Amino acid sequence: MIKTYSSKLAPLVEDYLEFRAAMGRSMHHAGNLRLFDRYCLENHPELEHLSREAVRGWISDEIARGRGGLQNKAAAIRVFAKYLGNGAYILPTNTIPKKQAYSPYILTDEELAALLKTADTLESAHDPFLRETVSVLWRLLYTCGLSPLFSLVHDFFKIYLPNERKYSPNTIRAYQKSLELLLDFVKEKREIPLNKITFEMIDRKTLSEFLDYLETERGCSISTRNHRLQCIRAFYNYAADSDVTTVAHMEEIKKVDTAKEPKKLVEHMSEAAVTAILAQPDTSRQKGLRDMFLMLFLYKTGARIQELLDVRLRDIQFGNAPRVTLHGKGAKTRNVPLRETVTAHLREYLKAFHPDEGIYSDQYLFFTERGGRRKRMSEDTARHFVHEYGATARLVCPEVPENVHPHLFRHSCAMSMYQNGVDLTLVSQWLGHANLETTLVYAHADTELKRKAIEKSVPHDSPLKEHINADRYKVDDDEMLKLLAGLK
Q1: Are 335 and 368 found together in one domain?
Q2: Whole-model pTM?
């Protein structure tokens, strides 16, 4: 009987897969590792460790053979190398360039109406049935061109969410991203065209593997994982309400539970850390001026990154009370005052990047320019340079967290306001929270930080130590707990 893995790396591969199985992880990497094992047996028979030559040779061989699923193969060998450690070669994430996404042209309702109207007026001396044929054909293409899955996806995003639920474009964008990631995952896993995906291909096992992929390959947090799952569930609930044949698929999806999210204190930065990060961009250059102002704007307004990048010039008002209008979640808007320091930097930024624009312009405040055309800066662009500045700032200021991201400025703004005596109700309104409970995390974080600071300042042998120990105030007696909770 032929062994599944036959090269000298076989014991390492089998140990790795046993580990994944024991941890309850998906086994979709096994097939790609089997291909790698076969390549090593034929080309590197004496190889006993994961070398650069073998890994890159295998990827190059797969490219040369014109095989698909290269991103999945690279991910499989990358995760395997991280498991091995001890000098195993880890394939860089940018080794295989991503394919240029196909962007089809979508006809508007007006264009479709004009097209069908033209079809109804066609005349031909050679074909007396041309008008009827083309008219019926185009209508069939329009109404029957999508599979049941994608037809429901279309109605979900184009009719249900915007018209019936009245969701904002940003909320719809989050749902779209979740479905897009899932469909792309299924496409890569099965190595089929996107339009061949059906409801039957997305079961409980596939969805669980997709959610694991979000965590392990894309580095998503448990919170993001659960949010993606909620968006997918919402689509399946809509599909089941719209088409009774999809109810079984909805029940299959409902079997996948949300992951337990560990409770943790809200992460924020000290003023010293923020100052160190803001000092990193070279403001003598336009890019540095833009990057510094964007981070300052994030910190001083407490805006979400999406809210900030959605700001247009017409959303900014100067005068006696300078302010900016932010468009938040659920199509909610709020006005945030701009302090003098922010206003001064804003004027400098406008001189450099919007010298000829009026105050009622629809131009985005922050933009990128390609081919002479300006478009809204993407969240990924902002996250990238914020992370880079955070990494360099950490070299000069140890208070800077390891992973600096745009939302950290929002947390830091809120914590700074609370620590400086601003009432939580005002902080909640400033941040645009729907309810006050969301804002209470900052009060809890501040109280916990103070308690820990007091504990660290008291020597271990001090008699005061037992009076500030948090464990001293835990209720362990069942009857007492019931009494305090009103059960007795």
Answers
A1: yes
A2: 0.48
